[in-house]
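Fig. S4 source data, part A: sequence.
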Amino acid sequence: MKVAMITVGNPERRTGGYLYHKQVYAILARMGLRIDEIVVSDADEAAQQQATFPADITAYDVIMVDMLARIAVAPYVAQWQAQTTIVAMVHELPSLAGVSVTTPEQILLDAAHRCIVVSEAGAAAVVARGVSASRLVLAKPGCDRLGAPAMRRAVANPAVLCVAQWIPRKGIDALLRAWAMVGARHVPLTFYGEVDADPRYAAGCRQQVLELQQAGYAISVRGSVSNRALRAGYAAARVFVLPSRFEGYGMAHAEAIWAGIPVVGYAIPSVQRIVAAAGTLVPIDGEAALAQALAPYCSDVTYGRTLDVAIAHARAALPRWQDTAFAWLVALDVSTQLPTIPAPYAYNAG
């Protein structure tokens, strides 16, 4: 079977969807199935409108299309659909994240024989756009990218850890305002993740960081780091915090649970499913409530240990990357061979 994945932007970035793809590509390659990743343009709308495709693109048995590339494929995907199998890879609907109009999304959703979704919330959103549940395959991200959880390091003053891109919906600005309310100048707050995706937003956050540092707060910004460094960061953390206002799934939240760390954040549907009782989730934009949720972890370094049982239960429910790869195999095989999608990869709207 020849399979292509059409995407846009820079797949070398260490961010959610690109990391997800790399994990699954590697596992499928070990199983003997290679996915040819085809980057057709930069990610911005103007670049996608000028995207170019291989002349023989329909020679592939399956063309997977990353929803990021919706604008690039919109003029062509209906034509391809008549010649080969189309599988939409829906990490999230960009219009729900506030960054896109719906038309290119809808063209891709309508043309796809199958849609891979990464969460129940994402599945419900796609069904609301008219995609039948029978066309969906649920392929949640794994949590074990960094390997087995590292032994928790005996650190005298463990950090509060945030792992995220610095973009508006991740709520870095809200976290910094809440951190000032907590007033825990003695507790390290450490940020990992890409900081240059939205330079204007990041500049505002850096100014917040600078002002807090000048007031005596121990804040460090590490940027995008290696898996080894990130694993060490989890091992030395007392709590994970990410007040994201929207997530297709919540990979960073899941990796924190996998590492044995309680989670504080906003109560959005996909994250609520991951965290369950293994932390504290507060209403979106509730910065005072966020500060209140963080305060006990800062005043008592052992506070997070009271959630060890809940964390263990939440971790046991998380999928592994092997599960994600198998779900892709189901989607690809189902698209061309099988009449129904076997559980647990079928989406049950009930």
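Fig. S4 source data, part B ends here. The first strand starts at residue 3 and ends at 7.
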